[in-house]
Amino acid sequence: MPKCGCNLGYLRLLVTAAIVLVLDQVSKTWIAANIDFGTYQVGYTQPPYTVIENFFYIVHIGNEGAAWGIMQGYGFWLGILGILAVIGIFVFRKHFGLDRTVLQYSFGLLIGGILGNVIDRFRFGHVVDFLDFHFGTYRYPSFNVADAGITVGVAIYLIVGLIDWRNEKKALREK
Q1: Residue 3 lies in a domain
Q2: Confidence band (pLDDT; 50, 70, 90) for 1?
Q3: What angle do CA 104, 83, 60 make, to 5 degrees?
Q4: Which residues form the active site (predicted)?
Q5: What is the end-to-end Cα distance of the chain in Å, rounded?
Q6: Cα distance between residue 143 and residue 141, in whole Å
Q7: What are 78-132's pLDDT values in tens digits?
Q8: Rg (Cα) of the chain, in Å, rounded?
Q9: Residues taking part in catalysis
Q10: For residue range 142-159, what is the model confidence (pLDDT) as tens digits?
Q11: Contact, 48 vs 41, CB < 8 A?
Q12: What is the pTM of this model?
């Protein structure tokens, strides 16, 4: 394979981050242009767009806080924290094992998601959430593509960490 002067691992990470970021921003731009803000909030008359009755809806709501609406009103500082997190990942990248393919994809998902939500915080003053799922009487907090990228990226990282931990314990027992 010819040398390109680039690190394929970081290329995987950057392409994954770019895909998540583009999908996130395109979907949020479409939502903002086509569905009235505040859909599905108490007292609002426009119903959500029903994808699967009693299960999956498309809405347009804003989250000024973090996951599940915690830390409402701190959107600016959460945006700054997101930027610092991405910088921290870059600075400490060697400590995260980013030479491993699975972790390159994991951190690509994570970084793309973080940047998607950071852009929203400074563009709209809140994160645009639009995917709304119901499980019986329980309504899962609405989320977006960036949130999904962050969640899947973190889940992969945790699973890999648990597998590594188990393998290390097994190796120690076999000594």
Answers
A1: no
A2: very low
A3: 90
A4: 129, 147
A5: 39
A6: 6
A7: 788 889 999 888 888 778 877 888 999 999 999 999 999 999 999 988 899 999 9
A8: 19
A9: 129, 147
A10: 899 999 999 999 999 999
A11: no
A12: 0.84
125 in the Ramachandran plot: left (φ > 0), alpha (ψ -120 to 50) or beta? left
3-state SS of 68-115 is HHCCCCCHHHHHHHHHHHHHHHHHCHHHHCCCCHHHHHHHHHHHHHHH
Q: In terms of residue numbers, what domain contains 76?
A: 8-174
Query: For residue 115, is it within any domain?
Result: yes
Sheet holding 138-139, edge to edge: 49-52, 56-63, 127-135, 138-139
Question: What letter represents residue 173's amino acid?
Answer: R
The answer for residues whose C-beta is within 8 angstroms of residue 151's C-beta and 6 or more apart is 113
Please report the DSSP string for 125-149 in residue order. Answer: SSEEEEEEEEETTEEPPPB-HHHHH
Structural domain count of the chain = 1
DSSP character for 50? E
